[in-house]
Input
Amino acid sequence: MRTLLALLLLFAAALAHAHKPSDSYLAIRAEGANLSGQWDIALRDLDFAIGLDDSGDGDITWGEVKAHQADIAAYALARLKLRSGDADCPAHTTEFLVDDHSDGAYSVMRFAATCPREVTTLEITYSLFADLDPQHRGLLRLEHGVATRTAIFGPERATQSFELAKISALTQFVDYAREGVWHIWIGIDHILFLLSLLLPAVLVLDGGRWRFPPAFWDVFKIVTSFTVAHSITLSLAALGVISLPSRLVESAIATSVVLAALNNVFPVVHGRRWMVAFAFGLIHGFGFASVLRDLGLPQGALLIALVGFNLGVEVGQLAIVSAFLPFAYGLRASWFYRRLVFVGGSIAIAAVAGVWLIERAFNMKIISP
Amino acid sequence: MISSATAMRTSRTSIIGTVTDGLRALAIASFAAAACAAPYVPKDDATVLERLPVRPGDPIARELRQLRTELAANPRKRETAVRLAERYFELATSEGDPRYVGYAQAALKPWWDLPAPPLDVLVMRAILKQYSHDFSGAMRDLEAATREDAKNARAWSWRAAIHMVQADYEKAREDCVALQNVESELYAVGCMAYLDGTTGKAAAAHRALSAAFAKNADVPREVKVWVLTRLAEMSLRQGDVKQAEEHFRAAYFEPINDQFLLAAYADFLLDQGRPDEVIPLLVDWVKSDILLLRLALAEQALRAPKAREHIEALRSRFDAAALRGDKLHQQEEARFNLYLLGNKEKALALAQENWKLQREPRDARILLEAAFAMKDPKAAQEALDWLERSGHEDPVLRRTAEKLKALKR
Output
């Protein structure tokens, strides 16, 4: 039997590694003096270290994991030292979940830590499972501002330091502006809302003749009032002055798209579409705010981020308008535009948004954009 | 790994469905995108999240528990530590799970960094080191072990194994010769036959190993499977497909699960253009990376709908390994890139990198094939030289080498 193992190796050393080795995934976000993080640790490893399978049947259930939450937190956090300068940043858990990775189930622990001062050098000492499995690695992902870096912790590299560069106001501004542009670009509900309002803009009659200035003026009013409105609510929501449940906001956004599109086919509101843009713009602002919140607002540079993001949204919006307007204006007199694009397009938009509305309001999935 | 911004984008794209769930798409929540979806709270306490590979009531688990308790009471008790390390190493090879090698290493902790630990620790340490592909470290320990005890069969056989992986056939021969004096016939012959079978004497090797096997039929099943798999390879190298298949089937019908056999048998069927037979062979083995690769190759050849899912699973596993900085799977990863992703350039780079560490016929093969795909014979020069020097007979390798050399002209 003893030689056999060597003989097996003769076939292929690499074959022996059929599975993933033990890793934990540690994500930390630094913001001012605060650290927030998420730590994914394999249940198998935790079971080996502190024993989770209370029933002894070889299955680890959620009930067993839940019963050991405090043990897991105590065991893990005792093996993770966060230091800023020469001061400790004590951590505590904020949330306890599970997740399925490619090699099995992991416990997911979210935690928060507070350092005495703004963190400029973060020193991390990682010793999880160091005594039980020297092959275990901790895979760190550290975020600061929009910068991300990674590191691997193991017994040979248990303590590592990270310099957190001062983020310049300009970089921060540009970063958030870019996110704003990106968001409007992928935020198809906002685009459709805007388009629904813009579609009839080029069809304005002025003394019996089609002319550009009134069309342009109409577009200008619509875009500006949409912008002003969503800037107001975006700021208020981002600053935490008002907060609405996201389900309500997302449903209302879908409603706004349905109504704006239907108004093209069965006109109710005629000349004053800029008022519609303003009213619904207020709702869309809440939608933007939830994105900004998810991005993480830097405590020290709230205003910069807010203005940057907002301007990014406007730039993205203007790009869409300037692409749409010449096209619509050029084709405005054609059957293609008046029937197919204007009526057909409006109906299609209303239909899609109608499905979103049902999905969002009833929390179900019909189509996934 | 994805950046926080990308994580955001993904979450925003699906915001229509997910924001309503009140799911806060914290950028960090998507960490290790290679591996995970979104963390959640299971609805039911009875939900089974994980099944332990070794059941607590299992005799192996009981023995391990007992040894661990003994060792905890006295961590410097060497016999217990070595025995525990051995048990864990056996588990690592049978389960294919590297965790156990870590546990074994932990058992040897008091001796791990000593320059000259006692003999039994020395050999065990070498075995664990080679598992992590620290071949030079392992060889230093094994040389020390055979110097101290020239009759240590285990140390000699591991030396042979490592020298074979490194394609150092002269040294491997010395090890096999040394083994003849200290090990039973089948093992000693097996060592030499494996060497001869790789270096252009497959017919003679096949004869010798068959004869020794016939005389020693009364060996454990694991050994039988090993011998039969080697015999199959030797038949293939002589171009005898029919005989190879007979050996593979005989090995397959031994009532044990052997990943090494399954991988070799699946490769044989793929080479023979019979992917449909690979599916029933490997369908229950998706947990094993190396077998999942073969399964996905077969599914792709058959245009089976499962192929996509399995390719994605493999991608996420290779990504997870990359996150850790591991280089243990490069040969497999090269094959994955070449045949399942069509990424020839990356495949070649991986195959070249792999060749620096491992030089077995399969390592040569992927290097030759990747170089051929890239129309770059120079990139596989070392494999071509190896083929020349070793006299290795495998017709598949020979054909690829000829095609590659033809590109040069």
The first helix of chain B runs from residue 4 to 13. The radius of gyration of chain B is 24 Å. The CA atoms of residues 334 and 350 of chain B lie 5 Å apart.
